Amino acid sequence: MCTGACVMYKVGRVVIGENRSFIGGEEYLKQRGIEVIVLENEECKAMMQKYIKENPEIWHEDIGVHDGHL
Fold it and tell me: What is the largest CA-CA distance in the chain?
């Protein structure tokens, strides 16, 4: 779920498997009273590294990187 949807639908807690590959709106959520838990799960980290390596074009599109720039 994206940050805006979490706020709009009044989600009370967001659990993030890992946040090294991309840091989203964690601070924004916290400022709005939403509990944010980051697990730093090794399996999630490995899965994301594999996905990014195998699908760089899709990954960069998803996070808004165009020609190597945000």
Answer: 36
Q: What is the DSSP letter of 69?
A: B
pLDDT at 29 over 60: yes
Judged on CB neighbours under 10 Å (0-12, 13-18, 19+), 53 is exposed
Decide: helix, strand or coil at residue 44: helix
- Cα–Cα distances (Å) from 57 to 18, 20, 46, 63, 68, in that order, read 21, 19, 18, 10, 10
Q: What local confidence, expressed as pLDDT, does residue 6 receive?
A: 96
> How far apart are alpha carbons 54 and 66 in whole angstroms?
18
